Amino acid sequence: MEADLVLLDCNVLTMNPSQPHAEALAIKGDRIVKVGTKEEISKWIGKSTKIIELKNGETIVPGLIDTHVHIADFGRFLTWLDLKGVKSIEEMQKIIEKRAQETPLGKWILGQGWDQTSFTEKRYPNIQDLDETSLDHPIVLYHQSGCMCVVNSKALELAGVTKETDAPSGGTIEHDPETGEPTGVFRENAMNLIWKIIPEPGEEEVLDATSLACEKIVEAGVTSVHWIVSSWIEVQTILRLRAENRLPLRVYIIFPADILDQITALRSREDFEDYRVWIGGVEIFADGFLAARTASLKEPYSDNLDTKGKLRYTQEEINVLVAKLHKANFRLVIHAMGDQAIDIVLCTLEKILKELPRENHRYRIEHAAVLNNELIQCIKKLDVTVAVQPCTIISEFTDWSATDRLGLKRARWLYPLKTLFDEGIRVSGGSDCPMEQLSPFAGIQAAVTRQFFPEEQITVDEALRMYTVNAAYASFNEDITGSIEEGKLADLTVVSRDPRITPPNEIEDIKVKMTIVGGKMVYQK
Ligand SMILES: [Zn+2]
Hints:
This protein is α/β, with parallel strands linked by helices. An eight-stranded parallel sheet has the order 8-15-16-17-18-19-20-21. The chain has a six-stranded mixed sheet with strand order 3-2-7-22-23-24, with helices on one face. A hairpin with a 6-residue loop joins strand 13 (171-175) and strand 14. Helix 7 crosses helix 8 (232-243), helix 13 (390-397) crosses helix 16 and helix 16 runs antiparallel to helix 17. The mean pLDDT is 95.
């Protein structure tokens, strides 16, 4: 038989334990038909076979899978001004002025990524700085941490904020100490005053933005995503992209419980699920986020003894909900960050698995941030998959001061990846983009080199498993993706260097050379 595509002279990391290495691959249609030596693969070359010869240590890994991406938000952010790396307020003003000239009057100008510590002026930007660029467009610019923004007078006026406006609890509206007027800076919950008046993008805008996001994602070497959708409109966007042939990657949809009825109707349409789009899991939230002190802890937050965070359900309520979804044969993805939330989720799962057959259910806890040995043993016993976003580990410790927030003893058990791997628990990897950058190699580097509690560093091989075999398992399709094996889908990521022999602090600089999905080149540098 003749292959459609062969790749020769490769360093192939298959992630298949029975054949960990190979030097060449043959692909026919959307499948890998042979993995082996150059000599073996040469036999597959015919008149119409396309041949790609790699060089200089270029390495092939299984198509990478990101198990946590908010693609609509990512797409929306891509249309915003990117202010990362801007060196002064003056430079920022020039960027806004340029955008203002291209933007119809009255339309919003949105941006993100500024950081006052990089500004030569060494101060926060304010309402006057922004007013100098435009009084006719409402402008809002988000800080790189996402927990602060600055606006101009037009935005302030549309939000109806005056010097008398009270900030909502958990937020601050900054005022000039002399005049009492707002400085334009809004922090934390006060940012909602602005966010809620920014018009939602229209259907076409969402379609174009998500399509652009998908292109960026395949450029990062990702061949499948677990797309966290927030609305039915977003599901329809995915279906439209598929119908219009604008989905370069595979999508496993994770959807909120409030669109269950629409999803049920969709699921009943036989022709819907294919190797391109799957109805994945329904996500329910047991608690909130550590960064906002809404993750539910057993003991109070160490930096605010008045709060233990918040559970979104009682034990009884979550038992009923999970049983209902289990019986309806929905796959469950349960967001739980705090030890109290993880505990009640595990209690629920233990009860369900005693009372109902497991059938083909695989339970998955999203984040599972604050653990302890008892919880880890329970996760292991119940065979629960844990979905972690390694770049957030670094952000929790740096941007959100996890050690102060949790105290040393609990912080030790924040994302204990090494312990989870040693216990044989399946951990999958994701980005949580756009909160974090979309780059599996940045995630691998974060997991391998973490400086906070370095005893929980994992090996490159383990980190790679998070984005390949373990992620495939978390999407219930390890029989067709996640490793390079004969018969599996030809989803491949070709990179500039072998991550296992790259110095750990250079892993995130590994370049993606090609991304192949189902035997088709969807990105080539
Ligand atoms: Zn997320």
